[in-house]
Amino acid sequence: MIAKKGRDVYFFICNYLQCFSFAFSRLFDIMVLMYNEIKNKFSMPLLALLVGASVHVGNAAQEQLTLPIGEVQEVPEFLVRTYPGRVVSVAQVNVIPQVSGEIIDVGFENGATVKKGDLLYALDHTKYEAAVKNAEAKVTSCKVELSYAESSYARHKKLVATRAVSLDAVDNALSARDGASAKLLAAEADLIVAKDNLRHCRITAPISGQIGTTLFTEGNYVTPNSGILVSLVQTSPLRVSFSISNRDYLTMFNSSLENLEKHALVTLNLSDGRPYAEKGQIEYVENVADERSDTVRVYVKFKNAKGLLKIGSSVSVTLSSNTGVLMPAIPPTSLLQDIQGPYVWVIDDAGIASRRTIARGNLLGDWLIVEKGLKPGERIVIQGPHKVRKGMKVVSPSKKN
């Protein structure tokens, strides 16, 4: 059944094409006969009139188009960029015990704000106090030995002149004096170590900031191998770090830290979208770029007076330049758009129009920034660009003959 219907369709199409071919052939024959008839009946003057009319129509098609033409201008664009940022601490300390001992006191509450020098932990200091006294006693003993050795050496030097003692005895006295001096230095070094160990029985805050959760409470015995007792971070001031693309760094600040510090305006939006009132100050820029993302990390310092910024939280960083960057600009009326993208009609020195595809930027008042495709000083059609076609001659109304 299906095969039969297919044959019927095939024959129908063949008959249709055959009829169409025949009709076209007849129409061509009729047109040839009409041409011969006109050729025989009309005189040469009439043919000349027709030719002249066709020439006039052609000249009309080549007439120049009069439209406003203007030059591409250069205007300052105050570039604004937004980047994701992260709040980081200026200083962070992991508190680790330097001596061994039992914790007899914890001087802070978890999460509290502490000042530099505040007591964090107190370790049992009994044996360290004893070690200091023992070291002090050794120092005193060595001083006595040294005093006797110096006096003995002085006496031997006098007696050797009268040959009451031998030179060997003098050398022995000198050796005893130098040995006593060395013992005193060693004893004094032991005293320094003993005092330092005693000092480390009181663990104090090395910086001001917010303290974390203690991992060892009162009664625990800790050693230098126990690891971190607690972490302490500085909360004021804080840093916000973000990565700026190399392209923006070049365009906005010419890859100069000095320009970045002078001309950059940095503001923040908190994670809930609220603007952060404090203004940031550029602190420094990393000395190398990230080769994977072609970005440079920038660090900005904030006072964080109210403590709204939390270390590790994410923020939105808005970076702008207060000087502006000179960019090509055109009137918005000169821009056209099609499937190939935005474009304008550029007029060369001979007045001939050619299409130029551009990369459009931001709209600044009466000007549209052009990021790519045009240079300042080039002439373009600024009104009525939809009337222009490729190769058409366009003149400004002021230059119309």
Please tell me about this protein's structure.
The chain has helices at residues 2-41, 44-61, 126-161, 167-199, 246-253, 257-263, and strands at 65-66, 69-71, 73-77, 80-89, 92-95, 101-106, 113-114, 119-123, 202-204, 209-211, 221-222, 230-233, 238-245, 264-269, 275-276, 281-285, 295-302, 314-321, 325-330, 336-338, 341-347, 353-357, 359-364, 367-372, 379-381, 394-395. With 401 residues, it is an alpha+beta fold. It folds into four domains: 2-61; 65-75 and 326-399, conserved putative lor/sdh protein from methanococcus maripaludis s2 fold; 125-200, Helix Hairpins, CATH 1.10.287; 233-325, Elongation Factor Tu (Ef-tu), domain 3. The strands form six sheets. The protein has a seven-stranded antiparallel β-sheet with strand order 15-14-18-4-13-17-16. Strand 14 and strand 15 form a beta hairpin. Residues 1-5 and 42-61 have low confidence and may be disordered.
The Rg value, from CA coordinates, equals 47 Å
Strand content: 25-35%
What is the average of the pLDDT values? 84
Overall number of domains: 4
CATH architecture type of the largest domain: Beta Barrel
Q: What percent of the residues sit in helical stretches (DSSP H or I)?
A: 25-40%
**Intertermini distance:** 76 Å
Helix/strand-derived class?
alpha+beta
DSSP summary: helix tally: 6
The main pleated sheet reads as:
7 strands, antiparallel
CATH structural fold name of the largest domain: Elongation Factor Tu (Ef-tu), domain 3
